[in-house]
Design goal:
mainly beta, Immunoglobulin-like, 2 domains, six-stranded mixed beta sheet, 22 strands, disordered N terminus
Length: 333
């Protein structure tokens, strides 16, 4: 086991009541910064998907911050900076110039991205993350005259500085902060499990599990978990379900809840004889909360007959933890 994985395991044992293999539920309390009122780093994309050889919109790199306080924060004059080079050079990006509305309200997210024109309309950010177009919830701050930030793919530091140059928050990431189950991490952001977890540690971060965009700038992280949880690991709803196309109870929802961490997930469906009929996940990268769906079909796309089916889950955590469970669901026609 690597030192990093050993560190993660010890952290989970200290801060959470982590279930042993076969348990059906768990309790967890995250280690957080209590009383924090200044903005915190919450999401980082350092290896965006950009290619001149396709017709797809380029994805910009970005940094997202979150205001956990109870009052608005004026970001005028604030900046983000990378790690100083061997010669002491620092790349610093001022994202909130004077003269604009630079208030970040309580509970609001701010996305900081490079955009040469400095215009939000038609920017790479709103073109790639289409849900940001016209979204009133997120604040967008574009750094004019830059096409990219100098955030290295092999590891760097993201530092949030106030108008006086004081350090507000920082995270010195490496590619190992990603979920190791991801074979490729290009276009996938690093997200925090909870904004108030300490930023400068791999224990607080993992890969975004957003399948469509690879990240969630401007909204709650895909791997977000509340500070305290007591959860069942495996839930099926509705049970029974009836995939007959009448628009009622056609799809089985499979909810999987695990302690904060990075996982590799396997979920399969077996018929009454024990035969494997459907793989819903096989070595799939997963975060603390995953939702899958079953339409009552086998792996070849054929409808399965009515009857009882056994769904099994196996989750391997990169901290060394293991979780398994099985539930029976009735398929009605």
């Amino acid at each position: 086991m690597s030192p990093y994985h050993l560190f993660v395991l010890l952290f989970l044992l200290v801060t959470a009541c982590v279930a042993d293999t076969g348990d059906k539920s768990f309790s967890e309390t995250l280690s957080r910064q209590h009383g924090r009122t200044t903005p915190v780093l919450n999401e980082i994309l350092f290896d965006p998907l950009q290619s001149s050889g396709d017709e797809l919109p380029d994805q910009p790199d970005f940094v997202e911050i979150y205001n956990p306080g109870t009052t608005a924060v004026d970001l005028t004059g604030w900046s983000i900076a990378d790690r100083p080079s061997a010669t002491g050079k620092v790349n610093r990006y001022f994202f909130a110039p004077a003269g604009g509305n630079n208030l970040l309200e309580p509970g609001q997210y701010a996305i900081i991205a490079p955009e040469y024109s400095g215009q939000v309309s038609g920017s790479r950010l709103t073109t790639f993350y289409t849900y940001l177009q016209g979204s009133p919830e997120a604040r967008i701050f574009l750094v004019k005259n830059y096409k990219t930030f100098s955030l290295n793919n092999d590891g760097d530091s993201v530092r949030l500085l106030d108008a006086n140059g004081n350090l507000v928050d920082a995270a010195s990431y490496t590619p190992n902060w990603h979920n190791p189950a991801n074979k490729l991490t290009k276009r996938i952001s690093l997200e925090k499990f909870n904004p108030l977890m300490v930023s400068d540690t791999p224990l607080s971060w993992s890969s975004s599990t957003d399948a469509e965009f690879g990240g969630t700038p401007g909204k709650a992280n895909s791997i977000y978990v509340p500070p305290t949880r007591s959860e069942e690991i495996f839930n099926l709803s509705p049970n029974p379900f009836s995939p007959n196309g009448d628009g009622r109870d056609d799809i089985l929802s499979i909810s999987i809840s695990l302690p904060a961490g990075s996982y590799q997930l396997a979920v399969s469906v077996h018929d009454a004889t024990g035969k494997l009929v459907r793989r819903l996940a096989s070595g799939t990268p997963a975060g603390p909360v995953t939702r899958l769906f079953w339409d009552g079909r086998d792996d070849s796309g054929q409808p399965l007959p009515a009857g009882s089916y056994r769904l099994t889950i196996s989750a391997a955590g990169w901290s060394g933890s293991r979780y398994s469970d099985a539930r029976t669901v009735t398929l009605a026609r």
